[in-house]
Every structure is written in structure tokens, then in C-alpha cells.
Design goal:
The chain is built from 4 helices and 10 strands; from the N terminus they run βαββαβαββββαββ. The protein has 164 residues and is an alpha+beta fold.
Length: 164
């Protein structure tokens, strides 16, 4: 089951095989073995109250021993080395990272209208994420993005695997 509160995203998802619903986690009544939240979804949650609710809602839909797997940006790496501008043939992505409030604004400019966007994200510290996750999960492992190599302060993207 794939869910998203944005109907546009669900319309796009429904062009692929699978079961997709336009809803929020709190509306899901089934229980699952795992919840996977990739592409830095966590970074799109901009306040602590909503982030805690997100983890609570996932905990509610997971079976005992269930897994939460998610990726996010690593605040430590961002503080050490600001994200760089990305230039491709059809677009330029300009990042603006504010170390004071841990916000990242990404601005994409392109000659292709679908590639023009502005995204505002919060780059949560690993300590805050672990503190919140400890309220809902008994085991938390943090890896360099999409690997089973332990994360370090230089990894821009990290992956969490948490067991209920």
C-alpha cells in the first residue's frame, strides 16, 4: 500500500502497478510488517510536533517487531560542508542551507516547466531523531544512505532502520 496526502502524487503513482490511496497515516487501520518512507520525507516535516505524530502514527500501523525504514539528510554533514549547487543540462538546483534553524531551501530552475520548483525542508539532527524514535522503537540503526555501512558525520544522506 502506498499512501500520500497529495492527490497529484497519488495520480502519478497510479500510473504504476500497485495499490495507492490519497490519505494520511492516521486513517490507516491495517497492520503492516514494515513502513518505508524514502526520498527524505522526514525532511519535509517542518516541526517537532508533526514529526512526533508521524512516528507515532507509523508505530500504530506496525505489527509487533515491525520495521520502519527511512532516509533523510544528515544535519552534521550539512553543518560541516554546505550543500553544493547542482548543474545539469536541463536544470540548476541551488541549495540555501541555514545553519541557525537547520532549514534547507532548494530552488530548481529549468527550461522544462515540470523541473521548476522550490522546496523548503528541515534538516533534523540525528540526536533529535533518535530521541523521538526511542519513544516508539526498541532498536535503531543508522547507516550511510542505502548501505549497511554505519553512518558517519560526512554522509549527506543517511538511512534509519528501526524495529518496534
Amino acid at each position: 500500500l502506498g499512501i500520500d496526502p497529495c492527490s497529484t502524487m497519488i495520480k502519478l503513482a497510479k500510473t504504476k502497478p500497485g495499490n495507492f490511496e490519497c490519505t494520511n497515516l492516521s486513517n490507516i487501520k491495517d497492520k503492516f510488517d514494515a513502513s518505508i518512507s524514502m526520498f527524505s520525507v522526514i525532511n519535509h516535516i517542518n516541526n517537532l510536533k508533526d514529526l512526533s505524530k508521524f512516528f507515532n502514527d507509523i508505530n500504530t500501523i506496525l505489527k509487533d517487531e515491525g520495521l520502519l525504514i527511512f532516509d533523510c539528510f544528515n544535519n552534521i554533514a550539512f553543518n560541516k560542508d554546505n550543500p553544493k549547487k547542482i548543474k545539469q543540462d536541463n536544470y540548476i538546483i541551488t541549495p540555501e542551507f541555514n545553519k541557525f534553524d537547520a532549514t534547507l531551501n532548494l530552488l530548481s530552475k529549468s527550461n522544462i516547466p515540470e523541473l521548476n520548483y522550490k522546496i523548503n525542508q528541515r534538516i533534523w539532527s540525528v540526536d533529535i531523531l533518535k530521541e523521538l524514535l526511542n519513544n516508539y522503537f526498541k532498536s535503531i540503526f543508522i547507516f550511510n544512505n542505502l548501505s549497511f555501512t554505519p553512518a558517519n558525520e560526512n554522509n549527506y544522506k543517511i538511512t534509519f532502520i528501526c524495529q518496534k
